[in-house]
Amino acid sequence: MTQHTQPAPNRAAIDDLLEVMNRLRAKDGGCPWDLEQTFETIAPYTIEEAYEVADAIERKDMRDLKEELGDLLFQVVFHGHIAKEQGLFDFDDIARAMTEKLIRRHPHVFGDEAGRTADEQTAAWEIIKAEERKSKSKHGILDDVPVGLPALTRAAKLTKRAARVGFDWPSLGEVLDKLDEETQELKAEIEVGNLENAKAELGDLLFVMANLARKLDVEPEDALRGTNAKFVRRFSSIEAALAAHGRTPDQSSLEEMDRLWNDAKAAERVMPG
């Protein structure tokens, strides 16, 4: 592998953050809340901070993005510090492992395999990751798809991974047919009043939707976030229209709110850009 010399990073900023973490977890004079935390109790905050990063990006708020990325970095520092206390690893080990992984997975950049196309690199990436799974005693195709992912995201990743070894619907039309089939099965369970089976059928329907998103090269979470934002935008228009007449949604009728919803929808269609 070609050797690449790397400039020594300016460690002042990260060292300051690591020292703040040291103080927060100090047995004498540290923060009582921080001292109580474990990997398990911090994990939900780590996930929340990742979502807040995505939210700042969605809003194109670069000031917030800088702050949210800092919050997410602190989560890594926090986990690293707890690991260091337990003699497992530390922040430097985390950074070093990531550097080694990136170099290992990009031989076309850091090695002697230059000139790959994007498709060739994607194929090579999967081969490298398969070898890594073997070294971790994770031999199954789906073994390293994280259980903690949002269910819709995980469904898309599971089906994408299975599709790479040929376990997939050959055409988009077959996915749409399956979508119709699962919809009918859900309706049937609802009609007989079996809510437990209806729950299972709803899960099947959502799983097919994740497959459909993959077939369309759409991230299902992105698609749903867009629809959530659209719903908020249009419902806010309903509230604003009613407020102009001194009323609130609970003082309106469904028919009136439907009309205002359609007005908001029509207004979006004629907006420039």
UniProtKB/TrEMBL annotation:
Question: Keywords in UniProt for this one?
Answer: Hydrolase
Named from the GO MF annotations, one term is: nucleoside triphosphate diphosphatase activity
Top-level taxon: Bacteria
User: A Pfam family in this protein?
Assistant: MazG
By its UniProt entry, which InterPro entries does this protein fall under? MazG-like_dom (IPR004518), NTP-PPase_MazG-like_C (IPR048011), NTP-PPase_MazG-like_N (IPR048015), NTP_PyrPHydrolase_MazG (IPR011551)
Q: What class of enzyme is it?
A: hydrolase
Tell me which EC number(s) this protein carries. Answer: 3.6.1.9
Can you name this protein?
Answer: Nucleoside triphosphate pyrophosphohydrolase
Q: Report the source organism.
A: Asticcacaulis machinosus
The organism that produces this protein has a lineage beginning with:
Bacteria, Pseudomonadati, Pseudomonadota, Alphaproteobacteria, Caulobacterales
